[in-house]
Specification:
alpha/beta, Rossmann fold, seven-stranded mixed sheet, 7 helices, 7 strands, Methyltransf_11, Thiol_S-MT, SAM-dependent_MTases_sf, Methyltransferase type 11, S-adenosylmethionine-dependent methyltransferase activity
Amino acid sequence: MSVNGDKIRQRYDRLAPWFDCLEGFLEGLVFRRLRKKLWAMAEGQHILEVGVGTGKNFSFYPAQARMTAIDFSPKMLEQAQKKRERKQLEVHLDLIDVQSLCYADNSFDTVVASFVFCSVPQPRKGLKEIYRVLKPGGQLLLLEHVLSSNKFMAAVMNVLNPLIVRLVGANINRQTVKNVQACPFRSIFIDPVSSDMIKLIRAVK
């Protein structure tokens, strides 16, 4: 379902104060463990987090890296700023859309995004922007929910998707692996323990 960026931004702005509570159960049960695994692969001196949201990944940031984090929702970024202050964390926060990154080519060693590309209006445009700002040999690390490979489940997800987009601005039927494969990364790895609908992806420039 195609929804413009302004409408998606408004939905995330609306949910920002309650976002952590809304996802609290799944965060504790599944997501936190996967985030930890994702960030354990991050390497390099300068790392970019795309879609920082409320700062759920702050606890996993590498201690020695220079961190930059962005989000397109002002209200989500406000929550991240408050969390940064509470944690006394050194991270530069920017209000930026991944589809139009302002950074120079070959700027980052690693780019990380978790559950972000479900809500990017033009995901391939965002992925190509990430490719541009990655250094040669740099890596993109993604944790994303995707369309099920089970035909019945995929049909259900496709039916429900317009409602989910209207409620929270996220698509539940994205084919993110195919979108990454459409970009010029020289190698792409899918973690073998990834589930049918949640994928941990590593792509190297």
